[in-house]
Amino acid sequence: MPFPQLLRLTTLFTFLFLHSPFTTYTFALPLTQQFREAPQFYNSPDCPSVDQDDSYSDSSDGENDLLCSDHHAVHVAMTLDSAYIRGSLAAILSVLQHTSCPQNIAFHFVAAASANTSLLHATVSSTFPYLKFRVYTFEDSSVSRLISTSIRSALDCPLNYARSYLANILPLCVRRVVYLDSDLVLVDDIAKLAATSLGDKSVLAAPEHCNANFTSYFTPAFWSNHALSLTFADRKACYFNTGVMVIDLGRWREGDYTAKIEEWMELQKRMRIYNLGSLPPFLLVFAGKIVPVDHRWNQHGLGGDNFRGLCRDLHPGPVSLLHWSGKGKPWARLDANRPCPLDALWAPYDLLQTPFSLDS
Ligand SMILES: *[C@@H]1O[C@H](CO)[C@@H](O)[C@H](O)[C@H]1NC(C)=O
Ligand SMILES: *[C@@H]1O[C@H](CO)[C@@H](O)[C@H](O)[C@H]1NC(C)=O
């Protein structure tokens, strides 16, 4: 992919150079990124139909039926913002490309109320004209007051917390959802992940990492406080990454887990009990209580570090989902011409149309 682009770039520069007298031939970079239109994806013949399931729908429009279907649809929730939209679009493409029933997938995008949602909506629908999706707004100002200023940073924007509010944001008819970060691609059928059994009462499923040092996610002030450290006394708490989760929103709503997460955030404002942003409250509420998912569904940490040029390798074992969590992002490294070896696995899903490749 980079080579033809580079060739085109060279050709264009040659062209511009040769035609330099035509200075009116302005070459303005678009204010926003332009994306290619993805192809349409079709269900395989044995896919269940979601059209009959209209028990919750108040319209005869097929799109709304799917966005509210509780039976055969796979509901995917992701956040959407201008900084990560290139990653989001790549993730969507990877989901559609690797599932047998792409027309049964409903996407629920959460955008910050302060963002230009109509622009985000337009970008998704022009890139994926056949996608079944809806964009919801998240009152980022309401969570800002809960984020302690000490941990607020670029990595810690309010939209990171949207995953804690999915039960409130998504319509009641959506019971089960797969939450996905924007810096990942799937290379397997998301329907398999979505079908994870949550048993009789579990709210959440995700790959667990019991070898990670769980202690390090909380401060000495937390562990030295007897009442607080008892939080984990009756469970085998393990770290899990919140970038890939299967959530039963019905059970979440019944248990009012959003309020439980907010309680920990309130406490964090008063005394520092952890150092990271949106992850520790999830661990406080759910660690040791989740259904473990095979590690193949979140090969995380591939982001490594842009600054020191640190590249990460895959963990041993099969791979269904590659996740560039960490500071480095594959698109930034590809643009800088300093990709990590595994970034080559992200590149085929990149839908960015560079100004140079607008060959018309
Ligand atoms: C949102 O984006 C659209 C399309 O680019 C633009 O026309 C509109 O002015 C923007 N709205 C705001 C509030 O910035
Ligand atoms: C785990 O992390 C804590 C706090 O950072 C540290 O004190 C402890 O030595 C670590 N334990 C292991 C086994 O690495």
From TrEMBL:
The keyword Transferase applies. Its EC number is 2.4.1.-. Its main location: membrane. GO terms for molecular function: glycosyltransferase activity. One of its GO terms (cellular component) is Golgi apparatus. Pathway: Glycan metabolism; pectin biosynthesis. It is a single-pass type II membrane protein. Keywords: Glycoprotein, Glycosyltransferase, Membrane, Signal, Signal-anchor, Transferase, Transmembrane, Transmembrane helix. This is Hexosyltransferase.
